[in-house]
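User: Run a structure prediction on this.
Assistant: Running it now.
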Amino acid sequence: MSEIINLRQTRKQRERAEERNEATARAALFGRSKAEKALEGAREKKARAALDGHRLQPDPEQSGKA
């Protein structure tokens, strides 16, 4: 004899699995950990500082003089 299943529960399980798969795919595309974000920010700050260090004349906006 076959097993009796609850169609409502089966439908909800299938929908949850689809949502989980979609979330995993989105995390792979867009998700970054807090450490990765901090590392990227530090690299940008270092690159900006290196670029500013090569200026011939100081930027008037950064020196506080307008």
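The chain has one domain: 7-54.
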